[in-house]
Amino acid sequence: MKRVTKIYEHPHYQECLKRIEKAEKDRIFCCHDMQHFLDVARLAYIFSMERGYDVPKAQVYGTALLHDIGKWQQYEEGTPHEMASSVIAERILEETEFTEEEKEGILKAILEHRKKPLKTSALSEILYDADKASRNCFLCKAKDNCNWDTQKKNLEIRY
Q1: Largest alpha-carbon pair distance within the chain?
Q2: Which DSSP letter does residue 130 get?
Q3: Exposure string over 129-159, b if 16+ CB within 10 A, otherwise e
């Protein structure tokens, strides 16, 4: 997981985490922090194994760590966070040891993670599903004010 650690330790990644934290300090809804990123990574990896996909663990974790890293730009500038995250991820991935094919897959999955695409890669599919499954809406005090579609909300215990 050396490549994933390089993502986490990257100075720009750390800067983005701080900007997200600052932007979400008073947020009553789900936050986009390391807990969320790791929850998504773990669920995506479980989904990959359960579905018999051959997606490398480092690629799953790298994608999960990067998928929402541009959220601060959505708050500050109105840029859709999947687009901002893709640009930031591309910059960070230049300084890792992921192959060009892995980088392309990661960037594609990040761009697709907000809407369930009809035809997609295994990585895009598991990222989308894990991102949604990572939220424990049934526990949330703000669930009645949340603008998430009821179909996306996790209103019962699931893994």
Answers
A1: 43
A2: H
A3: bbbbbbbbbeebeebeebeeeeeebbeeeee
Residues 131/60, Cβ–Cβ less than 8 Å:
no
DSSP labels, 3-34:
HHHHHHH-HHHHHHHHHHHHHTTT--S---SH
Residue type, 103: K
**1: which 2 tokens?**
């997981």
Q: Could you read off the pLDDT of 109-124 as tens digits, one per residue? A: 999 887 776 668 999 9
Nearest in space to 23 (alpha carbons), one of 67, 82, 68, 74: 74
Cβ–Cβ under 8 Å, residues 107 and 68: no
Q: How far apart are CA 94 and CA 123, in angstroms?
A: 20
Q: Which two tokens stand for residue 44?
A: 């995506």
pLDDT grade for 73, boundaries at 50, 70 and 90: confident
Going 87 to 92 to 95 to 98, the CA torsion angle's sign is negative
Would the CA dihedral through 66, 68, 74, 80 be positive or negative? positive
**What pLDDT was estimated at residue 106?**
96
d(CA 27, CA 19) in angstroms, rounded, equals 13
